[in-house]
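Following up on my earlier message about adenosine monophosphate. Here are the inputs again, as you asked, copied directly from the submission form:
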Amino acid sequence: MPAVATARTVAELRSHVAKWREAGERIALVPTMGALHAGHLSLVTLARSKADRVVVSIFVNPIQFGPREDFNTYPREEASDLDKLAKAGADLVFLPDAAEMYPEGFSTRVKVFDLTDDLCGAARPNHFEGVATVVTKLLLQAGPDLAVFGEKDYQQLLVVKRLVRDLDIPVEIVGAPVVREEDGLALSSRNVYLSPDERKTAPLLYRTISEVAADLAKGEGADAAALAGRFKLEAAGFRVDYVAVRDPDTLKPLSGPVKPGARVLAAAHLGKTRLIDNVAVPARA
Ligand code: AMP
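Thanks, got it. Here's what our run produced:
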């Protein structure tokens, strides 16, 4: 298997992309923080199906981590990531370092209001500003026709869609479904932090929000269903940030009976690991 091409500077990235543009090719970008798993690779596969060329970025973005979060310990696995991306059919991997992305004197932030006020925005102050800033930079650096983001980070997907619309960035944002372990746990680079016992408990997050979604589909009110979900998680030992029932486009809180497609979102800690997940409310059986 030949090695996948890499670029470590914006200039190198742009020279690859310029050649493809000249040839009239359609280009997709898949932004990641590395430590790649099958969830990330599903984004590459989806990108492949929609474009001639796929660029994957790997950058552990310091400005989206809080001071007490896991920036220093976040898994970094460049060699095996490059191997996986060669096999998955990526054309180019962009691996900038922090100085390339944030040179001396960098002083700009992109902030999406409203959508970032609560849920993960409340639990992680400045997180979405960091995400919006780096995604804006990556989109301007690569200039792709489309960029693929996972529904695993549902609030992030909506934030990216909103900033692209608001800033008139000419790119299509494509959402990809959550890839899960057999027991339902959403794949995440952070799952390696879980102890064996926590790993056994972790699938309860997905099971619980799926039960909340099923109760909502039967007509139960949003507040009661979300509260029942919170209690179930707390009883199993999770420290819960939120279990919430929201409008799937605006993330506005819903109460009373909800329509199919409403989103159930949750974030909860098991030990030192923060897990997030979300599901859509199914149509009534
Ligand atoms: P990350 O490396 O965690 O920043 O994730 C990079 C991209 O992969 C984001 O768009 C995530 O939403 C997406 N992603 C992460 N985990 C999954 C998963 N289990 N299923 C689908 N997409 C995922």
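One observation from looking it over: Residues 140 and 203 are 37 Å apart (CA to CA). Hope that helps, and feel free to reply on this thread.
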